[in-house]
Amino acid sequence: MGLVSFLSCFYFAFTVLLLFKKKSMGKTYIIFGVLTYIFVVGYSSIPKIPQQIQGISIFIVFSLMVCIFGLMFGIMMKVFNKSNKTSVIASIVSSSILILILFNVKGCLTYMYIPVLLYMLQNKININIDKTVSI
């Protein structure tokens, strides 16, 4: 099983876990499930895309893969620890580790915008989860 297949199964399992906790997670499971679906469909359609735009499509799909990975760990920390700061740190660290594992130096520099993006996204998700829990 390749890395992408493993991550796709892992993302699906996490979406199911969020589905079981939908009272405390709000619509987060829908957002995570849609992102996972877009990733799987996008990755599977890369060979069918014309050669001219294959490079940009690979960049977008791998960016989405790293973002989903970071969001998954951030949401997991929010579920188990209930701390916004811990979830943001887990999101940034997990995505940075995945970037370091997958890419060489040039690739790492190319994808370094993702931890900053995850900082903003994880804060917004934490606010939405807190609103859902307080209702």
Characterise the protein shown here.
With 135 residues, the chain is mostly helical. It is built from 7 helices and no strands. The longest helix is centred in the middle third of the chain and has 28 residues, at 54-81.
Briefly note the structural class of the backbone. Answer: mainly alpha
Rg result: 15 Å
Unreliable stretches (pLDDT < 50, length at least 5) are none
Helix content: over 70%
DSSP helical segment count: 7
Shape from CA axes? globular
Helices and strands in order, then pairings?
Elements: H1 3-20, H2 22-25, H3 28-44, H4 54-81, H5 84-102, H6 105-110, H7 113-134
Helix pairs in contact: 1-3, 1-4, 3-4, 4-5, 4-7, 5-7
Keywords:
135 residues; mainly alpha; globular
What's the short story on this structure?
With 135 residues, this protein is mostly helical. It has helices at 3-20, 22-25, 28-44, 54-81, 84-102, 105-110, 113-134.
